[in-house]
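Researcher: Here's the sequence for the chain we discussed earlier.
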Amino acid sequence: MNRSVLISGCSGGGKSTLIAEFAARGHAIVEEPGRRIVKQELEGDGAALPWVNMAAFARRAIEMAIADRAAAREQTGWTFFDRGLIDAAAALQHLTGEPVLEKLSAAHRYHPRVFLTPPWPEIYTTDPERRHGFDEAVAEYDRLAAVYPTLGYDIVMLPKIAVTDRADFILDYLLRETRQQ
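Model: Thanks. This is the structure I predict for it:
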C-alpha cells in the first residue's frame, strides 16, 4: 500500500499548519519544496525564486520532490507531504507547455487520494516566502483541482475546520479506507 499522502490545494489554505499537526502527532512529514527553495534562494543568489524565474523555481521543486518521494519509501507508516511533485510539474507545464506532468506522475506515484485545501480567504496571508495574492492562489488551486483527476488521483476536499479536526478527518478517512481493503 502506498502510504505517501499528498496535501495540496490553495496557497494559504492551511497545508503547512496541517503538516505541523501531523509531525506533532509523530507522523513522518515532508515540508513543501517551494518554501524550502525560497529559504535557500533568499540566503544565496536568489536566481530560482518564483517571482524572479518561475520556471527555474519549478524545475528545482521537481528535483526536490523526486528526492523527497524516494526518501519517503523508507518510512513504514503514513508520510504526509505538503505539496509535492504533481504541484511542481503542473506549475512548470502551465508556464512552459512542456509535457512533463504525465511522465513524472506515472513514475512517482503517491497515495491515490489527494487531500485538497480549498481557497480560504479568512486565513490567507502573504509572507516573505509567499508574495502572490489570493487571486493567483485561487487560479493555482483551480489548475490543481483539474489536474489531479486526469492523473488518476481521487480528490478529497478538506473542510474549513480547526487544524486538529482536519488532521482527524484525514486520519479517519485513511483508516476507513484501509479497513475496506
